[in-house]
Amino acid sequence: MKALIKDRPIRGATLTDLPLPEVGENDLLVKVKSAAICGTDIHIYQWNEYAASRITLPLLFGHEYSAEVVEVGKNVKNFRPGDRVAAETHVPCGHCFQCTTGLQHICKDMKILGVHMDGAFAEYAILPAVCAWKLDPSISYEIGATMEPFGIAVHALSKTKPAGKKVIVFGCGPIGIYAQMVAKLSGAEYVIGVDISQERLDLAKKMGTDILLNPKEVHLVEEIEKITKGFGMDIVVELTGNKAVLNEATKTLRRGGEIVLVGLFPGPVEWDVVNHVIYKEATVYGVTGRIMWETWWTAQSLILSGKMDLAGVITHRFPLEQYEKAFQLAESAATGKIIFKI
User: Fold this and answer.
1) What is the domain range of residue 53?
2) Which of 16, 43, 63, 240 is catalytic?
3) Strand (E) positions, the chain?
4) Which of 195, 239, 253, 322 sits between 20 and 30 A of 283, alpha carbons compared?
5) Is 209 a catalytic residue?
């Protein structure tokens, strides 16, 4: 089968042929239909410090995907060949305190598809049955491949109650735009998107974000003061993972507001916690992944409502053979979601 692997500790990847994987007793063998490029995949492709500290080579990477079940392991009861599925990235152990109290997404011994074990930039993949979400018949494979990142946005906003609130989202990549869409649909007074990429700001505007700000063109904190008439933002969602952005983001927060941290910083950060958190009595939430399976049910319901145009966030589609062009675009940070049609 065709597969895109990371086999050397240098920039790039290798398109190769691999034997069809054997299905384990608790797994599904699936035919991959659509797979999306994630920020983690870019780290792996670039082979930066983040990737080098986490990845064991060789690795078949890619984890945001949808597929058709081809074969099921002998212990699998709830799936059969022909089922259409999307993949939950987090593979829980099922036995630790977190797993036994409904917090599988932060399992103590978590494995991640396409990071700690082979993923899905290939014609076929092995998907642990515990991580398979059966797609509603009306949801396309392409949209199914975006349910994992969309779920992050759903999970992030579920920490707060956006209705009637002023919400600002730092980062207008796909998850940032999803978060803006969820906040708006949840009844926010208005939603502000912040990014330095004009292309991404334009996409966010197309998807319905109320106010778009480019810090290269305006003094962000002063602009928020004007927009809110000195009140500040009720909810700040940080998705950039940029150390410098964190302090600027929390300067925009009103006293008693809420901060949702989603973006992954490359290392320790210097954060003025005294002034921006303690003195403001701010509530801070850390968010990772999706709650299994609560977030997935909510995400699917939002899609089925017809009020969430996830297809509009997809800007490019490529065959796997054009992976170099796809990753070049992904690195430019001037796109929405990029999909491999496999």
Assistant:
1) 2-150+290-341
2) 43
3) 2-6, 14-17, 27-36, 59-60, 64-72, 84-87, 90-91, 111-112, 124-128, 132-134, 166-170, 190-194, 211-213, 233-238, 253-261, 283-286, 314-318, 337-341
4) 195
5) no
